[in-house]
Amino acid sequence: MIIESVLTTMDARGSTNFAPMGVEWGEEEIVIKPFLETTTFKNLEATRVAVVNLTDDVMLFAQGAIGNVQFSAVPAAVVRGVILEAACSWREVEVRTLDASPPRARIVTRVVHRGIRREFLGFNRARHAVLEAAILATRTHLLPADQIRAEFARLQVIVDKTAGLRELEAMALLNDYVRAREAAHA
Ligand SMILES: Cc1cc2nc3c(=O)[nH]c(=O)nc-3n(C[C@H](O)[C@H](O)[C@H](O)COP(=O)(O)O)c2cc1C
Q1: How far is the CA of 104 from the centre of ligand 1 (A)?
Q2: What is the CATH classification number for the domain harbouring 50?
Q3: Which residues contact 160 (CB under 8 A, 6 or more apart)?
């Protein structure tokens, strides 16, 4: 099963990177599949550790999908890295094997520590809709503009029915982003 996480990694000089990543979930092993051009891949190759953060705050996925962001974080317990303040729970992982075949690496990691910061609330449709919208926002260069517009319209209905303020704001951010991209390419 793929779980959508916010991955935190560090480069050799200690600068932190935050990126949404869908990871193949396991209790003892987690597989991370970053594209080779991502900072996440470069950091994992260089420092061989990461923190897999699980959060219900979809604003982080929205912001992470559309730009290079920094979020509030605290030091990890075992690996050299950081845990999101917004994390519900997290896993600290070390690289076991790294297959850098293009276009997307396959990095098998071992869980060396896990922790919980707060409760993960139950399913919310708006949060899932924002996650889907965030993924679409990372694919504006691959998908036709009408398809993106149609999918956003469908997802917006769900957001309008079931969102809290945070989800409404995250969806608005993604909407503005895809519109601006569309206008730039028109
Ligand atoms: C929910 C979600 C899941 C994602 N999963 C992946 C993934 O598994 N691999 C990947 O390379 N990019 C994935 N992305 C896109 C990256 O987050 C995006 O390319 C990011 O800019 C890479 O950041 P980095 O260069 O800072 O590592 C995902 C985006 C979202 C919104």
Answers
A1: 11
A2: 2.30.110.10
A3: none
